[in-house]
Amino acid sequence: MPPLDRLGAPLSDIRVISCDVFDTLLLRDERSERSRIIAAERRFASLLGERGFTVSPDLLVDLRIEIQKLAFRAMNVDDRGEVRLTDIVARQLRVLGLPQDLVEARLAIEIEIEKASLSANRALADALRTQKLAGLRIVAVSDTTLPARHVAELIRHFHGDHLIDQVYSSADQGETKRRGDLFPTVARLEDVAPRLMLHIGDDALADVKAAAGQGLQTLHLPRSRLGHAVRRAHGGATEMARRLRRRLRSSARGMPPAADRHGFGRDILGPIVAQFSLLIWLYADQAGSDGDARLMFCARGGVGIREAFERVLAKLDLPLAVGRETLMVSRLVAARSAVLARSPAALEELSREFRGSSFADVARALGGGDYQLAPSWHEPFAADILFDLLFGETGLAVLADIETQNRLFTRHFAECAAGARRIILCDTGLYGSTQRLLAAGFPDLAIETIQFARANYKGHSEAHFPRVAGLVVQQNLYNPLKPETAVLRYWHLVESLFEPAVPSVKLFHAEADGEVRANSGNLAYGAVDPAAANDLLAGALAYIDGLPQGGGATVLRDAEIAWRRLQKAITRPSHQEVACLEVGERSVDFGRSGTVRVVETGSRAGIGARLASIKAQLWREGAIVREFPMTRPALLALLETLHALRGLSARLQR
Questions:
Q1: Could you give the C-alpha distances from 166 to 115, 433, 630, in angstroms and in order?
Q2: N vs C: which end of the chain shows fewer Cβ within 10 Å?
Q3: Mean of the pLDDT values across residues 379-407?
Q4: At 252, is the pLDDT very low, low, confident or very high (cuts 50, 70, 90)?
Q5: DSSP 3-state helix, strand, coil percentages of the chain (rounded to 5)?
Q6: What is the pLDDT of residues 589-630, one digit of tens each?
Q7: Pairing status of strand 16-19 against strand 137-142
Q8: What confidence category does residue 79 fall into, taking pLDDT thresholds of 50, 70 and 90?
Q9: What tens digit of pLDDT does each residue of 512-525 get?
């Protein structure tokens, strides 16, 4: 029996029919969401021009897409609330320094674009009218970023004034069909038991499974697979064209010559750091929409990130109600909590860090002391034995110190959280080990992480990745067609850019007044200058300080060309660029002393020895420039080709 035939018969066991809107009561054409966004932003750019504001349509499109992407990411991590178009537009206007009273005009454009891409489902409307004449109440229920008043306007435009008695929008209610929590709310507001409701819709999850899970009767009206396929293809083609336009824009503009370290930081890293700060704000503003979130900048890198972030907020006049703190943490500190929870994640991290070391080396790092240990502790480290040793008789002294350190950190962590339900860590990246370990050690806390980049370079579990967002880069391998991924070729640049010249957090102690302090000293906001002896960060901060009021558009325009310039400096550097970007020695960390050089200066005379050494370098391109000044163009081109092929192979194997 065709699904709609059910609506042609009396529904004696139903009092209220709830109906999905988009792709059910109102049918979309073949145009993709991406194409509708582009059409709306182009029209908005024209409106802005009429009101005296000059903003590129492409910039509006890019910003809208980024804001929407981060809003949904922040919402999905918390699994509550809903993204609202009014908030998306408001953030867009704030970044660009435009008046907030333009929100309604922008929403009106959205509705006009929707009207042009929708059509009425006449057959369904006729069936609903039959049931309405029989005395049933008809309501519309939609998962949408639009307010209910605008959804109602669309329905009236296609079906007249009297078909729908009430419209319920997830954007207004802060609850969704796909999670299932919107249905009980609608039933309560309609004063009807869920079993006396019939929900109609096209989505198998939101309109059928979720509705049935809340006790509603359901009627599935799926759209054709061909229609979905055509729309996806249209969206893919639209996105490819958008990215091509963006690439041509950045390619067409001149690239500044290499400068000294401060100049490189100002002209190239400055726009990138400012862009990262904007992305943090966009995520945090959405995450803090319920007023119960805390943003914690993780030492050490978080100190420099916060300095830039606070300056961008002040310069661009971006409001943020979310409280901010500096969290004294490191992978070592986080590992202690995970070890005490006997988490496999801790063993996996320790296995990687202490490969070739002994159990005693692990004990010194985790406990922070020198111990007289049994002979078994001096055996080579093996993950499957550690917990037996640590929680056995021979590990009591080490375990006691680990517990003491974890208690002190737990106090510090709680003070920073200040009772917030949602804890957002902000760090540099890549794998998100701190997130993974803290989540294992504090399973009752809702912890998530935003960072510059996320990549699984370790080959470990990605179970924590849904709660780790790489705001700028979120993929495992360098892609020459995506300039931002060049940082994966030289990650130590990003870490050194944001970290102040202080030791990694290893040990805590309690002051006489009870305040918990770490060996790194006081890293609270304003207590230390992260740009001291760091010309690259000092230059980046100078760029931020020089921004005009409301200069978000300047940041976004400058960042496009800055990424192309940084990609070139990392993957095809000149001698001057190597001098600008070399970061010298990096500490080993994880409770151990010692450093490694990012680019080793060679004393190897033979060509074979020098070629073999390149693989061990932390910045291979920089090492090639140093070791092979005459043949570097060919070697760098070969290395770029190898990385491109590696990325292509990885994508084909997915």
A1: 20, 48, 74
A2: C
A3: 95
A4: very low
A5: 55, 15, 30
A6: 776 665 556 666 655 556 767 777 777 788 888 888 888 888
A7: parallel
A8: confident
A9: 888 999 999 999 99
Q: Side chain identity at 555, as an amino acid letter?
A: V
The encoded tokens of residue 156 equal 């009236």
627, amino acid identity: E
As a whole number of angstroms, the distance between CA 97 and CA 340 comes to 49
Q: State the burial class of residue 443 (Cβ atoms within 10 Å of its Cβ: 0-12, 13-18, 19+).
A: exposed
Q: Which pair of structure tokens corresponds to residue 36?
A: 């509708």
pTM of the model: 0.93
Give the DSSP H or E segment for 220: strand 217-220
Sorted by sequence, the CB contacts under 8 Å of residue 601 that are 6+ apart come out as: 626
For residue 593, the model assigns a pLDDT of 63
d(CA 14, CA 572): 69
CA atoms within 13 A on the CB side of 611: 8
Cα torsion 91, 95, 101, 107: sign: negative
Other CB atoms within 10 Å distance of the CB of residue 562: 25
Q: CB under 8 Å to 233, separation ≥6 — which residues?
A: none
| Per-residue confidence band for 44, with pLDDT thresholds at 50, 70 and 90 | very high
User: Using an 8 Å Cβ cutoff, are 490 and 619 in contact?
Assistant: yes
Token couple for 261:
């370290």
Name the token pair of 630: 């005459």
- CA dist 574 and 564 (Å) reads 15
User: 527 Cβ partners below 8 Å, 6+ apart?
Assistant: none
The bridge status of strand 592-597 relative to strand 585-589 is antiparallel
Of all residues in the chain, what percent carry a pLDDT higher than 90? 77
**Consecutive H or E run containing 17:** strand 16-19
Q: Using the CB atoms, write b or e for 573-612: b if 16+ within 10 Å.
A: beeebbebbbbeeeeebbbbeeeeebbbeeeeeeeeebee
Contacts of 273 (CB under 8 A, 6+ apart): 308, 497, 537, 540, 541, 543, 544
Give the side-chain half-sphere CA count within 13 A for 572.
12
3-class DSSP state of 623: helix
Nearest alpha carbon to residue 417 among 295, 526, 510, 511: 295
Instruction: Decide if 590 contacts 279 (C-beta within 8 A).
Output: no
Please tell me the distance from the alpha carbon of residue 628 to that of residue 448, in angstroms, as a whole number.
44
What does the alpha-carbon distance between residue 432 and residue 366 come to, in Å, rounded to a whole number?
Answer: 19
- Taking each continuous run of H as one helix and of E as one strand, the counts in the chain are 26, 16
Give the C-alpha separation, 522 to 530, whole Å.
12
What's the half-sphere exposure (Cβ side, CA atoms, 13 Å) at 508? 27
pLDDT of residue 359: 95
Q: How far apart, in whole angstroms, are the C-alpha atoms of residue 617 and residue 492?
A: 12
Length of the chain: 654
